[in-house]
Amino acid sequence: MAAAIWSCPASQMLEFPLSSFVTFCRNHGLLQVTNRPQWRTVRDGGREYVNRLAAGIGEIHLGQPVESLRPRGGKIELVSGSVSGIYDQVVLASHSDQSRTILAAHYPAQARLLRQMPYQPNRAVLHSDASVLPRRRNLWAAWNYQSGHSALSERPVAVHYLINRLQPLPTETPVIVSLNPLQELDPSRIHGEFHYSHPVFTRHAASIQRHIAVGNGRDGIWLAGAWLGYGFHEDGLASALRVARKLDAAAPWQGLADAA
Ligand SMILES: Cc1cc2nc3c(=O)[nH]c(=O)nc-3n(C[C@H](O)[C@H](O)[C@H](O)COP(=O)(O)OP(=O)(O)OC[C@H]3O[C@@H](n4cnc5c(N)ncnc54)[C@H](O)[C@@H]3O)c2cc1C
Questions:
Q1: Mutate to test the pocket of ligand 1, among 233, 235, 239 (most ligand atoms within 8 A of CB)
Q2: Residue 40 has what pLDDT?
Q3: Are 15 and 204 in contact (CB under 8 A)?
Q4: CA 126–ligand 1 middle distance (angstroms)
Q5: Which pLDDT value is given to residue 150?
Q6: Which residues have CB under 6 Å of ligand 1?
Q7: Which residues on neighbouring strands pair with residue 70, listed in sequence order?
Q8: Probe ligand 1: pick from 59, 83, 95, 228, max atoms within 8 Å of CB?
Q9: What ipTM does the predicted assembly reach?
Q10: Element housing 166 (H / E)
Q11: Contact 179/123 with Cβ under 8 angstroms?
Q12: Model confidence over 163-219: pLDDT tens digits?
């Protein structure tokens, strides 16, 4: 179960700090059989909140990856292809390994810390091949873990998310996202294939996160992202709110910045 939650090989979970694991399970109501939390979905999908956030931001440059940052007269020069700009503060909300690449040349102290928070790749296939789900339909769950031959395998975890049970979809056809499927899928039922990456939480993760929190903002460089928490959506938001608060920027809704 833990490997499915963190999308990592089952054997890697043995590295995961126990106190963080128990806290996570308690926060998400995973330790109780009754009185479970009521999960809700965002109407029309996650793109809706991206659209609303984007509407409040003046200038957005899409498809223009930041290549590097370098100190320039007490400020920071941001380089992206042939374009560059000078900024007082920069918030990197990319994955730890992506931020490390951006910082490697001119901010070695931050890059060294980031090296200790790696990401690992996972393959995801969007399809309608129900043969990956349990044979008995009444056993179909939102998350369906597929074990290999060994209980504590080092291979990437295989999970089949039944999206129809996670979101209100206007179809009875099973819509499945398979993470690292173990068997070949029916090619005629495959709708797309994607490569994602997930943070790897080693036993040192919590202390590295604390180090980063203490030094965050050094040289005007701020780090945010889900990897600074447990690796989930709410962790990305909480990390951004912490940075916003340190920069004296108020959250657009009351109270949440204080709670983060
Ligand atoms: C298959 C799958 C299932 C998941 N299920 C859940 C779930 O059920 N619940 C949950 O809470 N979370 C889930 N997650 C995790 C969730 O998607 C992540 O926690 C969240 O999206 C991470 O947010 P983030 O802001 O840290 O990173 P991202 O959302 O990945 O954002 C990083 C951004 O940085 C940008 N970027 C990277 N490099 C550069 C560069 N050089 N210059 C400029 N921009 C750059 C990228 O384009 C990207 O937009 C799942 C993830 C996957 C892959």
A1: 233
A2: 86
A3: no
A4: 17
A5: 66
A6: 65-66, 93-94, 98, 102, 124, 179, 196, 225-226, 231-233, 236
A7: 77
A8: 95
A9: 0.97
A10: helix 163-166
A11: yes
A12: 999 988 999 999 999 999 999 999 999 999 999 999 998 888 889 999 999 999 999
Ligand 1 center from residue 74 Cα (angstroms): 31
Q: What are the residue boundaries of the structural domains of the chain, listed by start?
A: 1-32+121-199, 75-118+201-260
- Tell me the average pLDDT across 54-79: 94
pLDDT bucket at 131, cuts 50 / 70 / 90:
very high
Name the residue at shortest CA distance from atom 36 of ligand 1: 94
Which numbered atom of ligand 1 lies nearest the CA of 227?
26
75-118+201-260, CATH topology level:
FAD/NAD(P)-binding domain (3.50.50)
Q: How far apart are the CA of 121 and the centre of ligand 1, in A?
A: 12
Provide the terminal-to-terminal Cα distance of the chain, rounded to the nearest Å.
27
Give pLDDT, residue 259. 47
- Kindly state the DSSP code that residue 140 receives in the 8-state scheme: -
Cα(192)–Cα(110) distance, rounded to whole angstroms?
A: 36
